[in-house]
Amino acid sequence: MFKRPFKWVKRGGWIADLPKSFPAAPRKSDIESIAAANHTELGPQSLAPEYDMPGVKFTPRDVSTPAEQGDCYSWLVMQRRPDIVVEFGSGFGVSGMYFATGLEANGSGHLYSFEINPDWAAVAEASISKISNRFTLTRGSFEEHVDIVPGKIDLAFVDGIHTYDFVMAQWEILRGRMSPGGLVLFDDISYGQGMDKAWLEVARSPQVAGAVEFRRHGRLGLLECL
Question: Among the four residues 4, 5, 17, 91, which has the most C-beta atoms within 10 Å?
Answer without folding.
Answer: 91
